[in-house]
Fold each of these.
Amino acid sequence: MVDVLVIGGGMAGVSIAYELAAHASVLLTEAEPSLAEHTTGRSAAIYAPSYGGPIVRALTVASGPRYRALETELDTPPLLTPHGSLWIAIDDDGVEHLAALPAEPVSPRRARELCPVLHDVRAAGWDDTASDIDVMALHHGYVRGLRARGGTVRTTGPVTALRRDGRGWRADVGEDEVRAEVVVNAAGAWADELADKAGVPAIGLRPMRRTLALASGAVPADPAWPLVADAADRFYFRPEGRHLLISPADETPSEPCDAKPDELDVALAIERINAATTLRLRSVHTAWAGLRSFVADRAPVVGAWPDHPGFVFFAGQGGYGIQMAPALAALGAAVVLGRPVPGDVPARDVSPR
């Protein structure tokens, strides 16, 4: 018996479990043999306050000071390494999208100074507040912190059944039965499937496949280059060691699954980036894919349906869950525990709707 059962061992699950464990007994369970096997473990996450919709950007900004505090709190190496992001527009569609981004306008000439392989840039925007995130250092830190606060982590424990038990819940986790006052559904792309097992209405989650690859070409990657992203969200690339990490910024509808890269998506990324640069990419060293899950308005979902108390969604974080994890976890824990939302954390109605 625990106060809170958190289902899902990715960044969403471990971050909210850590925050909850300061005030409640917590069991975190993951169906896979190890934590962070899906989206979190495959993320090319950046901390970019100019990336995402308004609530995402606000939560990202609020997470900045919390990242720095967590380095001490969780005894991690530096979690954020400054690395600017350059948004570029290569056509009218890109110019229109760029105008809506909160990035500092810079000239095409300045864009090429920041990344000399660019050509035919119509307009550009610079985000010097962006950073690379040490994703696994953050994830491991949250797990250590959860255990230090008395929380329990178990893997290879798929939840096969969930049912109401008076004011709480009973869950069949592997071969065991767990009783909890509150269930936190942090199951990522599987959040609606888990809700169905509990007899709780779905939130309309839409998993989307995102493809990434490490590639190289005629021009060696320069570690000083920023992350370069098409403002119309059709590709991005950034230096990754001796190679370039590339993506066509695809969002291909998918069932919840162990996502695999599609060769056509990798080829599309190469085609789009070669058209916008002088890189002449031709060699792919490895490719992978993950799932980004959204509800219709692309805002994170935090809270319970009024008729189903105690079953709390912590889902729909899309491709932004890691950059806003510290603030969103604090918000989620406040919602679960019925405590005031911390003053530095922005909140709006992010409950199921």
Note: The CA atoms of residues 263 and 287 lie 9 Å apart.
Amino acid sequence: MAENNSEDLDLDRILSIEIARVTERAAVAAAKLRGRGDEKAADQVAVDAMRTELNKLNISGTIVIGEGERDEAPMLYIGEEVGTKNGPELDIALDPLEGTTICAKNMPNSLAVIAFANKGKLLYAPDVYMDKIAIGPGYPEGTISIDATPAENLAAVAKHKGVEIGQVCACILDRPRHAKLIADVRACGAAVRLIGDGDVAGVIYTTDSEETGIDIYMGTGGAPEGVLAAAALRCTGGQMQGRLLFKSQDQIDRAATMGVSDPNKVYDLTELASGDVMFAATGVTDGDMLQGVRFKGNAISTHTFVMRSSTGTVREIKATHREGQKFA
């Protein structure tokens, strides 16, 4: 059911076209460097472009998931204020180039992504790993549990989908730390789709399993990316759980300053991203759900999804921009 309150009206002002421009601009900037093997350069131009567009919006935005701490990132750092300051107070989670390695190698599923929510509605996630599990819409609440075994989660998905486990596919980051998880999934008879990078996209795949072939996302990845993925799931429907993974007491203490009082807490979807959330993603390279940026003569084509949680609306925007002209 749509949430009808004053916060929703705030987000209406920047709905659809405005947020799409932000990810479109970042995606186009990064796409000009895809396949060049320079991750840092591609990421930097995407950051520059996204920041420029954000500062044109009539919002009073604060970056809560960004490029890192201020001393690590000169722009779009955590705590940076963006926008004209003449609009609603919003928390912003972003990744100007989700999958920097993917873009540098011109491989599938690199994205420019961003999420808006009213102040205090996104988890201020520290830059640590998060154990994650996610499925798309259509399953009974409680179908998956981060504390269950892979076999139990896969069996639950198969049962409610009405198929054998052999017809279930799990998306997992291709990392040495996931060797046992991958083996456990395969031992159940389920398929595995390994991805080299970009676990925001990996979670989003679950929202349209008929198109992507992905039923469940499992494994560990960045906590900030977990919040971005949760924002997308809030808009499209689905279930997700996450638990922060700390390597040291220093990390636990740092997280406490960001409001994480229980280092062992399991966060559900609405604890990661609550209230009215808006999410946008533009393809940088071709992917399972979004086409990458196309350059044709003096025209540039982009493919973007814009989603909103309070209405459940998913807009697909295919736009053509003239090279050198203002995005509009």
Note: The longest strand covers residues 89-98.
Amino acid sequence: MLELKEVITDDDVLAKTLKEKIINHTATVGVIGLGYVGLPLAVEKGKVGFKVIGFELNEERAGRVNAGDNYIGDVKDIELQELVQKGALTATTEFDRLAECDVIVICVPTPLTITRDPDISYMKNAALDIAKRLRPGQLVTLESTTYPGTTEEVILPILEKNGLKVGKDFFLAFSPERVDPGNKRFTTKNTSKVCGGVTPICLEIAYTFYSQTIINVVPVSSPAAAELTKVFENTYRAVNIALVNELMLLCDRMGLDIWEVVEAAGTKPFGIQTFWPGPGVGGHCIPIDPFYLTWKAREYDFHTRFIELAGEINIEASYHVISKVVRALNNGNKSLKDAKILVLGVAYKNDIDDVRESPALKVMELLRREGANIVYHDPFIPVIEPHGGSTVHMDSIELTDQAVEEADCVLILTAHSALDYEHIVEKAQIVVDTRNATKDVKNNREKIVKI
């Protein structure tokens, strides 16, 4: 592990002044992008006394922040309201105010294109906005997940094009977000933060900045090392999920219960970490980050076969769900075409309001393509818009006994804890459970089909 060395001297006037402002919490912090990463970060900085300005292209979202109207589950309503009321946190669509900031943190999306290539346009646009207002003595940090090399190969040239020099006139670092939406144990504050600076002075200032609100900051030798760290973390998860999903497919052939096998294996106190199977992988990291790594690897004439295979297996898991639904319907002398399918849960994980890259959207599209009639219920996702995996607009229906009884198949794709699965199974004709949500159901178990 890299040991942080303090390299700023009295001769480094801009760096020393900025570091002192950060330590004294008199620095103004700008956060570009007030989504799942940006707003929690802005709140944490505001809570310790920094003045925070949130920058948003979305006028409605900026207005909601300024009204103290919280829209992120990991942010406490009262904390946002208190910060807004005392003027510690404001949101704006006026990017000229970037000049007021001593520290600027980029927290914008990094999706994939339709061809599964990295889309870094949001990051580049943010860097261009900063470059127009960049002044001596500012720290810029990038938190958006990206491929190794982005900070120095893409962001740095944009910021230096007006003649300011990194490490002397301004400071640049990469520190990947590690947000796990809905996690009550690990939050922005107590999740270790990796940080890599373009120069040793950049690292020292960025380390100081993050240390004000995060318990453990982990310095690494470069932005590229920090970038690869984040991509590796989620690739690790994607590969292990693929492993257990492949085992799920084998267990289906062998007539074994994958949930029993994984639970039993997890009792070993060493040498294994438990991953659970499911209808695919979702969220803003696991389905996307490995593709950033495989894309970058091609530049070095290297093919990440293991990672690419994992992606294929996780996609195959969604098709496996369709086959389980077909077989369940066939056992009741029904076909998938024109069948009424009630989907329970469309968020990418339980008990959150995030549908990004959710495998539920793919499964629903596949079912719709085969002629099934789809409705869904999700207490966290009232509406699905026709983008990001869905081709149609859908509204969550009320989960009534009639809705359950009329469905030819109830398909559990996300196991929200608030649902009464015992009652659902009692009223349903057949239940296909992709999340082991019905593990504690005692009655009518003959109605349950698990992946």
Note: The chain has a mean pLDDT of 94.
Amino acid sequence: MRNQLPLYFILSTVVLDAMGIGLIMPVMPGLIREVQHVDLADAAIWGGILAAVFAVMQFLFSPVLGNLSDRFGRRPVLLISMGMLALDYVIMALAGTIGWLLIGRILGGITSATHATANAYMADISKPEERAGRFGLISAAFGVGFVLGPMVGGLLAGFDTRMPFWVAAGLAAANFGLGLVVLPESLPRWKRRAFEWARANPLGGLRQIGKLPGLGWMLLMLFFYSVSGYVYPVIWAYFTQASFGWGEALVGLSLTLYGGAMIIVQAWLIRLVIPRLGEVRAILWSMILDCVMLFGIALSPWGWLILVFTPIAAIGTIATPAISSYMSARASEDQQGELQGVLGSVNALASVVAPLAMTQVFFLFTRDGAPIHFPGAPFILALLLMLVALALFRVGLRSGDDAGKL
């Protein structure tokens, strides 16, 4: 039991991190409209800007924090991230202008290394053959947080638009305190390497990891895959309101349904699928399913059909831990933090592009005077990007001599 404590703590950290995100998702459109006094279409634009600012900070600082964790260990990076996350939510709760919301997103983006560092920690304490399953546990933990977060956030929003931020701040602060007491270091001193600024900036880190066989193309694939996947957190609340008139509670319920399905997929189904298909085929078929779901959601005429699609779409999340495991197996022990930092940087770059692109497309097709009223347009864009990711995946396999695994 004692040997499993680090595993349980990392999983609880991811749960609380996801809960914090999920708590505020249903209320963000209303908060932006309250602060800016704008309609839903304009609120979506501001929502995209806030998400993009957060992601720019992630892009710039994820490699720095990943390399710092390779030099000084995972524990201090995780603890600092958790503490600053609590402060970020306090700032968001008190914000009375869009400027303070931007400051909160900047601070949160700089220190949002929790997920990437948690992956590096998990790689440290896992055998190579365990990594796909344990990365799946991290995704399942994220799903648990997504079940609880939107559900609670949707309920709290009925009392006050600021309440979810205060609750998220309390959860982050409590987890920081727990980490101080129980979290051991996972990276021994003899496995650490010197910190190098040349490798700690986004371009340097991408260049270093891109030298590994086949991973250059895979990083490019991950970018398009991530931009496509961000359509859900960026657009979901706006899309369901515009298409079906859903309120915060129903948005929270739909996200809860997705999170529940994601828990089952990541904690159980992935352990059946990846050993049978292998990482490569699991990634391929998950991406094909993503394409089908994006098309179906974009064109769905009924809200109840969206609720049917939601748990099916969660099956596509098998690709995420499979990609992490595939890439982790090709990096050395003293590169795991650097790799996860680079993956975080790629995801962050995607989350810079995605909110701006998706919300702009949503605005163009839902604004007054739009030639065609089509709230599902961002999902069509996401479908096209997923098809590009599929093509790049096959190129990466040939480049890394893994084409025979298809």
Note: The mean pLDDT is 83.
